[in-house]
Amino acid sequence: MEIKFLTAIISALVAVFIAVLNHFIVTPYKEAKERKRNRLKSLYAPLYGLINVRTYIIKEFIISKKKLMLGGVDTAEYYSKEYMETFILENSGYASNKLLNAWIEYVTQDIGDYEEERTKNLVITTVKEYNQLKKDLKYPYNQKELETGIPECIKEVRDFIN
């Protein structure tokens, strides 16, 4: 009789241990990883793409002026500052506080009164956080972009931007 009782207690303890382990360790880990995937998919990957396109279209201008700027093209809506602002606003729930602050600074600058630091802060924050999320998820990422925040498409400017 003692062996049956002992077996039942051990089985119950193992079941409780597995339930606690699942509830407090496994499930939170899975949920955190899923949140990171959603942040990457819903905000950071598309925003990273937008920033790369908007810097690439004026790459030569950036290099010649030695200023980090974001360009735009009238023929494509998604190349515009307004599209990017709307996109960030609609997906702001996925953004870090640092990215939101950089975005607020960027959108509150006057068009005629361009401030490079505000644009630079938005670009660097986005690029670093994008690569950090990829690193955390064990996806391939760009180490230089993670360190500097300067997109690979304008890597020539890393020396004078930072």
Overall tally of domains: 1
**Strands, total number:** 0
- Percent of residues in helices comes to over 70%
Task: Specify the overall morphology.
Answer: elongated
The radius of gyration over CA amounts to 23 Å
Portion in strands: under 5%
DSSP helix count?
Answer: 7
Largest sheet data:
none
Word description of this protein:
Keywords: Membrane, Transmembrane, Transmembrane helix. The chain crosses the membrane at residues 6-29. This protein is 70% helix and 0% strand. The protein is mainly α. It has one domain (35-161). α1 (2-56) runs antiparallel to α5 and α4 runs antiparallel to α5 (116-136). The longest helix has 55 residues, at 2-56. The termini are far apart.
Secondary structure blueprint with pairings:
Blueprint: H1 2-56, H2 59-65, H3 81-90, H4 97-107, H5 116-136, H6 143-148, H7 158-161
Helix pairs in contact: 1-5, 4-5
Keywords: Membrane, Transmembrane, Transmembrane helix
Could you name the key traits of this structure?
single chain; 7 helices; transmembrane helix; membrane; elongated; mainly alpha; 162 residues; transmembrane
Gist of the model:
With 162 residues, the chain is mainly alpha-helical. Helices cover 70% and strands 0% of the residues.
